[in-house]
């Protein structure tokens, strides 16, 4: 049981250790339970350390072209990972083709914005990830303030919350400026007719 737990915790490093376990019913002593480092196997692994080995059946291709294709695959997988983790996109099962295409377009545009943010962070705030910035920006929320007028209409003032000090510093570092608060508008409805708040 303890050996299994150690194997799980050690991961791939467990393969460089040779262990002799006692037979069933045999007492655990220094003679029946031994372990040692497989130095030859470790040296072979150190020679390969830091190198990639690509196996393929495309033997006629130029190795440089194969490497480029592999890196494109890595980038595509990273994009899908970003869509699922950073942007929280999940599969939606559409029935109509135009809805499928619209969903793909929205997902692609969201990824483009994330990639743009990542590129911008490299120059202005290299210690931050796009996900961390999106979590910070989520603190900015918008709301509509409805005020009744004497003629039965309402003055609607859309407002966004002012960023906290740390978020304001982040926006300054990224050289991003929030737009001005939107202008108020008059609507032919009373505050009682305003749509319910969604929590």
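^ Assign residues to that structure.
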């Amino acid at each position: 049981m303890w050996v299994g737990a150690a194997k799980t915790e050690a991961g791939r490093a467990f393969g460089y250790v040779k262990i002799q376990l006692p037979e069933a019913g045999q007492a655990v002593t220094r003679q029946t339970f031994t372990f040692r480092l497989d130095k030859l196997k470790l040296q072979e692994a150190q020679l390969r350390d830091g190198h990639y080995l690509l196996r393929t059946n495309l033997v006629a291709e130029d190795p440089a072209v194969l490497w480029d294709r592999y890196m494109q695959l890595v980038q595509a997988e990273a994009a899908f990972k970003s869509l699922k983790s950073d942007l929280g996109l999940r599969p939606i099962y559409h029935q109509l083709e135009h809805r499928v295409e619209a969903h793909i377009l929205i997902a692609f545009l969201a990824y483009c914005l994330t990639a743009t943010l990542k590129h911008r962070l490299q120059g202005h705030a290299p210690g931050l990830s796009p996900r961390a910035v999106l979590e910070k920006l989520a603190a900015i929320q918008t709301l509509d303030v409805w005020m009744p007028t004497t003629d039965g209409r309402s003055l609607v003032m859309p407002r966004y919350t002012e960023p906290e000090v740390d978020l304001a510093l982040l926006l300054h570092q990224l050289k991003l400026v929030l737009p001005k608060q939107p202008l108020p508008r008059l609507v032919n409805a009373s505050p009682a007719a305003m749509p319910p708040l969604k929590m």
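The chain has a mean pLDDT of 82.
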